[in-house]
Write a structure and sequence with these properties.
single chain; 97 residues; mainly alpha; 4 helices; 2 strands; 31% helix
């Protein structure tokens, strides 16, 4: 079985902040939704991973992937620019950039 999956890469990608999805809108307050980023940040990070060469066995965080790719302006991803972002619920606290 291992040979059958030898050419399949497996990685994980998680958002640094909450993402403005229907799940957040339905289950959390309007304030948390406004403090979220747009789904495009995850799509852009996934694109960087998928086009960056072969890799497997990694746990990526969207913001870290994009910073490594040279992105420094993250305001464009904010649902409500100027609003403090709400950290993702499942990642440990991180240092602010």
């Amino acid at each position: 079985l291992a040979r059958e999956f030898a050419d399949i890469s497996v990685n994980s990608l998680w958002p640094r902040t909450t993402i403005a999805t229907a799940a957040i809108a339905f289950n959390f307050s309007e304030a948390i939704l406004r403090a979220s980023r747009q789904p495009a940040i995850v799509a852009d990070a996934a694109y960087q991973i998928l086009t960056g060469g072969r890799c497997s066995g990694n746990f990526y965080v969207d913001e870290e992937v994009l910073r490594a790719a040279g992105v420094s302006d993250f305001d464009r991803y904010a649902l409500s620019p100027g609003t403090a972002l709400f950290d993702d619920l499942f990642l440990p606290a991180h240092k602010k950039h």
